[in-house]
Amino acid sequence: MPATSSTDPLQRERDHLAASRAALRVMREDVESLDTTDVTGTWVTAIVLNKQIEARIAALADLAHTPLFFGRLDYLHAISEELAEGATGESFYIGRRHVHDAAGDPMVIDWRAPVSQPFYRASRTDPQDVERRRRFGYTGGELTAYEDEHLTDPAETDAASALLAAEIEKPRVGPMRDIVATIQPEQDEIVRADVGGTVCVQGAPGTGKTAVGLHRVAYLLYAHRERLARTGTLVIGPNDAFLSYIEQVLPALGELAVAQSTVQQLVAHVEVRAEDDPEAAGLKGDARMAEVLRRAVRAGIALPTEPCVVVRGSRRWRVPVHELTEIVEELKARDIRYGAAREALPQRIAHAVLLKMEQGGEAPDDRVQDAVARNAQVKAVVKACWPPVDPAKLVHRLLNEPEFLAACADGVLDEEEQRAVLRTKPGRSVRTAPWTPADAVLIDEATDLVQRTASLGHVVLDEAQDLSPMQYRAVGRRCSTGSATVLGDLAQGTTPWATADWAQALHHLGKPGAHVEELTKGFRVPEEVIAYASRLLPAIAPGLAPATSVRDAPGSLTVDRVEDGLDAAVVAACREALAHEGSTGLIAADARIPALAEALDAAGLGHLTPGTETTSKARLTLVPASLAKGLEYDYVVLDEPAAVVAGEPDERTGLRRLYVALTRAVSGLKVLHAQPLPEQLAAVPAPVG
Ligand SMILES: Nc1ncnc2c1ncn2[C@@H]1O[C@H](COP(=O)(O)OP(=O)(O)OP(=O)(O)O)[C@@H](O)[C@H]1O
User: Fold this and answer.
1) How far is the CA of 541 from the centre of ligand 1 (A)?
2) Domains and their CATH numbers in the chain
3) 210 lines ligand 1 (CB under 6 A)
4) Model-level pTM greater than 0.95?
5) Is 592 a pocket residue for ligand 1 (Cβ < 6 Å)?
6) What is the ipTM of this complex?
7) What is the spatial distance between Cα 305 and Cα 298, in angstroms, rounded to a whole number?
8) What is the β-pairing status of strands 142-150 and 130-139?
9) CA-to-CA distance for 266 and 254, rounded, in angstroms?
10) Which residue of 159, 253, 312, 633 could cross-link 218, Cys pair, CB 3.0 to 4.6 Å?
11) Distance 186 CA to ligand 1 centre (A)
12) Which residues are annotated as a binding site for ATP?
């Protein structure tokens, strides 16, 4: 660490910050000045190299609002170099990324390095050899404060960290931020869990599931960079608005190569242009459909009825029906993909021909076998016995032809269920068929039955509770040889097929042994608000413990009955909320959105839609309840809870939707209603004891 002349401890830290920023600038300039014109190799290599350089330059950006380091650890004993990115000594600055000086000596250590871990986990009861933990406070990019904990000093007692509280309270404008400076011990356990295992996190609203999932990918990329760069990583979220809300977290942590997608985008084999009714959607998402599809894919397999005769030169070679049957039966019994078996079949027949050639005194080699496999007679047998399968056509047929569905679903779906799955208006072509989201998942399953889906190294699945079993399977095949982080909250499930217990979900995902962790400490929602929302828990998720909140903000909840002029009251509440710093979300039943948009417009209050970034100028978002999941606002105005509940097909789903809407606020929630509140919300639970 560079020497500094000041004796003022704060100034010394500032000097180190200035020196680190200068060093980062030099690192960036070094990369920028790399000349690739001399690099021999193809133009492809040059393009790849330039891309890598560009990514590295972007990763080395010095972002004014994300301080280079946020903590410092002073150990009692020197740490070995391998644990500290080559640094030696007892004292280390912890930051978002590694920074070294011109001599290559580290000035800031990456938060993911082993030496940084005690910053998140060390405590008075388990100091992990840390003598002092220092947290830094910044104002507008300037280092302005620090806070120390002397973990081995018996005279010092635990005090709540003001810097930590300030960081959590910071008004939210713009996209989601990273939490590297303040990851909590129980969160860190998940972030740093071994890459080999799948972790499932059940967590109440605002407990940091999304944050933890994103930091976990960043951690895994650090710890297993090469392997995961090769296999790839993916974050799955519920919709585009959510994905754009979280998209800047990983780049801010220097990770630019993580793909993001919704489940629907993953399975976009056809153009979706229709919706199923809930019953059909539920059945199509049921895991039993996997068996129906397995049978459908294999329905075309037929045993041979004629021998295969191959003519080569002046000789004819004949594979009799019983031998062909044996080959087909053997392939049927093997646990390989339909397409792989289809590729193996001509080779097997050719092999049988070759054996006959050898018996006939010839000495054919591998090239002969390949040529025989391509012979027209052999191809004809393959076509008849193991016809090609087009997954979309197959599913189209299944949904259109009652007899075909009946044959494939025999003993799996009863007659009524089959009727529900069938299209009401059959007969259109694959291209123009009224495909639904659930159909696309069926096609994905069929595609995988024909040809194995490539697996990524790690997949983070957020808001998992809304997935159907067939959707879990679709995600599962994308991490079949990798691992997953599954994040969700059973109380926030708003699909008819929402997950009822995690063991089932993990079974469908293909990770039955995965660990389930629970997070209950809430960072977003103030105590009063979470307590109010938790009144719904007995009705929507009886087994779940209510979340606690790390933040007590008296006065953060108001519930007002409006006798007359709800829209005007809502507009006034938005105006009032906007008088505070930070973002405001007006959440309402989807059906109420047009009327409220009009009221806001008439009042001259500009408003955004979810997924559009809030800025210091545009801070009001009008949020349909169906899109509120995963999002958060400093202030929330919630319009007419009864309408939010009524917007869903059944009461439990409606109350769950309301629970989501009630748990989006960081600083204040104002509920306005003209209709009576749902009784579960109005009821004040009897005092305990
Ligand atoms: N350790 C932490 N330090 C500071 N802020 C945190 C911490 N953990 C979570 N937060 C903040 O709390 C808020 C909620 O986090 P997040 O969105 O990850 O929760 P969630 O469990 O996914 O919520 P939901 O179930 O509602 O989607 C975010 O603003 C996040 O940055």
Assistant:
1) 21
2) 9-159 (no CATH), 199-268+454-522 (3.40.50.300), 308-385 (no CATH), 546-682 (3.40.50.300)
3) yes
4) no
5) no
6) 0.99
7) 18
8) antiparallel
9) 25
10) 253
11) 13
12) 203-210
